[in-house]
Amino acid sequence: MNTTAQVLEKNKDRILEKWMQNQMADPSLREDLMTNDELQHQSKEMLDGLLRAISKGNYDNIYETEFEQVTDTLRDISITRARQGFSPRETGSFVLSLKQALIEVLVEQRQNDTSTLYQEIMLLNTMLDNLSIVTFETFIKGREEVILRQTDEISEISTPVIRVWDGILALPIIGTLDSARTQIVMENLLQEIVNTGSNIAILDISGVPAVDSLVAQHLIKTVSATRLMGAECIISGIRAEIAQTIVHLGIDLSNIKTKATLASALQLAFSMTNLEVRRIDRNKTNKLLR
Amino acid sequence: MIVMTKDTMDIVREQDVVPFRNRVREFGTRIGMSLVNQTKLITAASELVRNMLKYANGGKVILEVISHNAKTGIRLTFSDQGPGIPDIAQAMRDGFSTGRSLGLGLPGAKRLVNEFDLKSTPGEGTTVTVIHWKHGR
After folding, report:
1. Confidence check on the interface: ipTM exceeds 0.85, yes or no
2. Could you tell me which CATH class the domain A162-272 is placed in?
3. DSSP state, residue B72
4. Is the pTM of this model over 0.90?
5. Does A214 touch chain B (CB under 8 A)?
6. CB contact under 8 A, B40 and A245
7. Which fold would CATH assign to domain B2-133?
8. Which InterPro entries did the record assign (chain A) (predicted)?
9. How far is CA A73 from CA A5, A49, A64, A76, A138, in A?
10. Domain A4-150 has what CATH class?
11. How far apart are the C-alpha atoms of B94 and B105, rounded to whole Å?
12. How is chain A split into domains, by residue range?
């Protein structure tokens, strides 16, 4: 009697045909993201690899070397699909519809031998279930990579250091100030102090939703580091409710210069650098010119 | 005391803090709590949830809208299975910390809310319950 691998190998073309049919019949097929030729190519590559792997007699351990090519192909496909924006369902149906095709062909071929068929189906089931686990693992990993990349991008764009005046830097902090953010904020700020030779930095916390003791501790650290560099630090954007909360919490910010708005912080910075902003009396200047 | 709405959140990592705070804010807005009171409650909640993460590797929070004597408020119950607090009086003192922080978390949170209750059994865990009324001081 032929082994399962031999039966499947003999009917390879039929399996591929059925598999393609299954995939095409799926209403969730994304023809917009991938051409049918591409799909056919991927499916063929996967099936070839799979048949080669089971021809060695290994049906249950997909972590053995003969399965390496199959899992590699599968990982490749899943990660590409994750990046292309396929849904988990669309990605998972690739390997799950293969299971259906394989079983259909086996049922055709083993009509007279139900006990063998039963065992074969059990084996194939476990194997393909394991392969779909690999698919999902990789798919989720692919998505997580996208998320991680976005997190990095967010933390980069959310900490700009602005040069508002000669010698005065402003740093608007938006979002929650956690340890990692503080590190980035501090690095950017200190670097910019060196680059521009500024001696005043304004930290604006209008965009920080809640100031708890951890956030306060991070702010105090940033201010101390700035002072060590010889620059003075002003914290602005302290809203009324934040002020009350800080007092109740018992955080001592008394030796740090704080202001309610960025405008008043800038004014303080001007007076510290002996600058003055004045309204020009046009009439007076006109008279002088005349 | 009547519980009107109830919700539970599991806190297991740092990333859970922000959604949790937003949840508390949502509850506050729903009962019409003023911005100052909302901020106080959120800050206290933030302190307690951070303690939970730092010292007990996370835990569970129950959020409830409660009504008592015609007053509406929010009750938050933080429970963890961490090492517990051996000396509560010491932990409630300003500036005391075993974790190199400012040491204002627990006493600060107590000052921010209307009612504060801390129960802890060393080796078993800690439960902190806070209540803040809609028109809290």
Report:
1. no
2. alpha beta
3. E
4. no
5. yes
6. yes
7. Heat Shock Protein 90 (3.30.565)
8. Bact_StressResp_Reg (IPR051932), Globin/Proto (IPR012292), RsbRD_N_dom (IPR025751), STAS_dom (IPR002645), STAS_dom_sf (IPR036513)
9. 20, 8, 15, 5, 11
10. mainly alpha
11. 9
12. 4-150, 162-272
